Amino acid sequence: MKRNMRVLASILALTLALSSLTACGSSNNEAKPSDSGSNVSADAKDTITALLPPVSGKFQDKFKQLEKEFNELYPNLTLNIEPASWEDMTQKLDTQVNAGSPPDIAFIPSGGIPKYIQQGMLLDITDTATPEMVADYDKVPLEYMKNGNGLYGFPAYMEVHALGGNKQFLEEAGIDWKKVQKDGWTIDEFREAIKKGVVKEGDKTSRYGFVFATAGVASKDYLNILLKNAGMPAQFNTDLKYAYTSKNFLEVLKDIRALIDDGSMPKELSSVDAGKRWNMFLTGQTMITGKGLATFENNANENNEKIKAKDGSEVKGSIPVDYIVLPVPTFLGEKQQASVAVDGYVTFRGTKEPTAEHKANVVKAAYFLASGNVAATTNNDLFAAHITESGRKAAETMPLNRNEDNKAAVETLLQQATPARPDIPTDLGAKAIKMEDEVIVPKLQALIAGEITPEAMYETVKSAAVKAFGEDGVVKE
Which of 29, 151, 236, 358 could crosslink 126 through cysteines, CB 3.0-4.6 Å? Predict the structure, then answer.
């Protein structure tokens, strides 16, 4: 939240009252756990390790403070946090996993859970997380951290994958963005709208109607976000048949190509990464951008202040921008189903079964990071909705300068969020991830670059799906 999100704002000073997690009790590694599996004697030492990316702008700057606060809360416990960038997070984690010694906690998208279950490296905390901890979370995001009957960590946020528009450009193009926020739009309506946002100077396009990052860590996002609004909220339908062999998949591919062929998106879209996409938005080179996260409003506001300050700290060539949250268009008469990123603090184990005492300590650390003041501060920085009662309460005293129309739009989209699918077996989930990495993403890049047709990509995906899941394991229409 996944994933990539990853142009993030400055974080407020993190504070944590010692009383915020009193429901968790104290723990260590020597005494036997209580009936709940969470409380052991208070004098045994234990160390919990965590591999964490820059969840928000200055999150990593606060690691020493977080380690100190956790130790103050649990004097017998030490939290060691290793930083990682978004770009090398997966590589670092996989290296440790493959060596059989992963960190106790890693911040990853919930979609990665099946992969690590398949490798036997996730720690099921169902019997260790206390009822008070579980009850603190909203039900929907917590479900994303489950697979089958297991719970594999705590969510940090449930962030909507929307689009973002420049208010001035939208209004100049005659787009009723408030109506779109409320009622949504179809792909045909969207296609016509972004045509109006294009500005050309001779043969050169100075402003595009729409730009989406499709390179680097954002390569998976574009197609996945669109497919959810085309009747495919997950890679498997409720009968556990692979869904991307549906004819709707082909229609989405055709529309992806059409937006480029219209001239509403750059021909060089396949080379646009997340950083370039955001730079193009702030410098007025596009009317609408995607993936649009709630935190981008905060980022735009901060850049606006830097422009006013005239100190040269703003993005070079940038203009003042009023950021507007917009829904992703729907396809083929299907209902709006918002794509959400539920990323969080996932619990790992090594090749040996951890002791009950260490497991309880890992749960305490994961909950410390994913609730209360820590979660409130991080989510406020991201403009992400709070998903814990403790976070909501802590956030009441934290100032937040946010567009009320955008806040309402995000709340509407969260109500339309695609449901979690813990029913998808780990072996199918792992195969789907492999399909995405090895077949879908490379072919999508080729499609966007104009090297293959939508029909060619569709046939390739169908063939690979049948090979991976069998003739009876895919949707047939």
Answer: 151
Q: Tell me the per-residue pLDDT of 277-315, one tens digit each, with 9 for 90 and over.
A: 999 999 999 999 999 888 899 899 999 999 999 999 999
Using the predicted structure, report yes or no on whether residue 120 has a pLDDT greater than 90: yes
Cα-to-chain-centroid distance, residue 229: 17
pLDDT per position as a tens digit, 145-154: 999 899 999 9
Please, what are the domains in the chain?
A: 18-159+341-415 (3.40.190.10), 160-338 (3.40.190.10)
3-state SS track over the chain: CCCCCCCCCCCCCCCCCHHHHHHHCCCCCCCCCCCCCCCCCCCCCEEEEEEECCCCCCHHHHHHHHHHHHHHHCCCEEEEEEECCHHHHHHHHHHHHHCCCCCCEEEEEHHHHHHHHHCCCECCCCCCCCHHHHHHECHHHHHCCEECCEECEEEEEEEEEEEEEEHHHHHHCCCCHHHHHHHCCEHHHHHHHHHHCCEEECCEEEEEEEEECCCHHHCCHHHHHHHHCCCCCCCECCCCCEHHHCHHHHHHHHHHHHHHHCCCCCCCHHHCCHHHHHHHHHCCCEEEEEEECCHHHHHHHHHHHHHHHCCCCCCCCCCCCCEEEECCCECCCCCCCEEEEEEEEEEECCCCCCCHHHHHHHHHHHHHHCCHHHHHHHHHHHCCCCCEHHHHHHHCCCCCCCCHHHHHHHHHHHHCECCCCCCCCHHHHHHHHHHHHHHHHHHHHHHHCCCCCHHHHHHHHHHHHHHHHCHHHECCC
Residues 418 and 233: beta-carbon distance below 8 Å: yes
At 72, the pLDDT band (50, 70, 90 cuts) reads very high
Spatial distance between the Cα atoms of 115 and 11, rounded to a whole number of angstroms: 31
The C-alpha atoms of residue 413 and residue 161 are separated, in whole angstroms, by 9
For 201, counting Cβ atoms within 10 Å of its Cβ (0-12 exposed, 13-18 middle, 19+ buried), the class is exposed
